[in-house]
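Posting this for the archive.
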Amino acid sequence: MFMIGQVAALRRGTCSIAELHRDVCEGGTALVAAAAERHVLDDEHSRGTDIAIIGIAAMVVREGQRCKLARLATAGAGPVPVRLRAAEEILEREGLGEAAIEAAARKATELVDPDADIHASADYRRHLTGVLTKRALTRAIGVARG
């Protein structure tokens, strides 16, 4: 798993306890445990006073160049963290090549509805979503086994 910035939950809205439990428990525990062994955290440019403008989390399970499972989520690109399902589907359908990564990053920019604040404009947050999605996927694919 590779994370950039801050990440909270992977839900667009509210859900029941049963839904949350199902999503976490059905195979998720084993995948997260395996990914934790290869965990990469990008703090190369981090300072104690930094404020995350956009956060992207990416997890990839691969079989060669085939993407068996992809999970992407963003925080800071809207009022709540968002799972980027349509971008995940691109990777699972098209594989882990450069074209698929680019397409998933482009789709991520379409899936967010960021607000502007004193730290960044909505357009900058949208742009940063694509840039960081590509970066997070590249790093996650690099550490994924298979």
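The chain has one domain: 2-143. Helices lie at 17-25, 28-36, 85-94, 98-111, 122-143.
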